[in-house]
Design brief:
single chain, 164 residues, mainly alpha, 0% strand
Length: 164
């Protein structure tokens, strides 16, 4: 009787293992395919996003260049109008003011470029003088007097006397 129970248990175990093996293989291949499709879709989305960012910045740069050109043409138009419509003294005064504004704009841009070049990133350490102890030194932060050191190392004068 016991032999038949053991035999039935072994057969059931083998059949269950085979069913589990084949069920696991078929579902894992389906999962792998769906995961690969998701990865491919995400890669396509990333490429599209990068392309849209690049085109956005290209369009922005083009628009800024056009704006600069328009600004220059407005300045030239004002200068020409002042020469044609105003007396020579007023025209010269307007031209000087316009030239000063365009010069100050270019000077401001140059100063901004030099200011950004002079900026240093934050340091992750505290600056120290050459004669100071550095933070990585074994003695860093240990400032004690000789008297305190002697008190800590001194043996207490009271000792327990042996009882007789």
């Amino acid at each position: 009787m016991e032999e038949s129970n053991i035999l039935i248990a072994l057969i059931t175990l083998g059949v269950g293992g085979a069913i589990g093996y084949f069920a696991g293989r078929s579902s894992s291949s389906l999962d792998n395919n769906s995961q690969e499709q998701q990865v491919d879709e995400l890669k396509k989305e990333i490429v599209q996003y990068k392309d849209s960012v690049a085109s956005h910045f290209q369009q922005t740069a083009t628009m800024i260049n056009e704006m600069n050109d328009s600004y220059k043409s407005v300045i030239q138009h004002l200068a020409q109008g002042s020469q044609d419509l105003c007396d020579p003294v007023t025209a010269e005064d307007v031209e000087n003011k316009l030239a000063a504004k365009s010069d100050s704009a270019s000077t401001d841009q140059q100063q901004a470029e030099t200011d950004t070049a002079a900026i240093e990133p934050p340091r992750d350490y505290a600056p120290k003088q050459p004669d100071e102890i550095g933070a990585l030194s074994e003695n860093y932060g240990l400032t004690s007097n000789k008297a305190e050191t002697e008190e800590e190392t001194a043996v207490p004068s009271f000792a327990a006397s042996p009882k007789v």
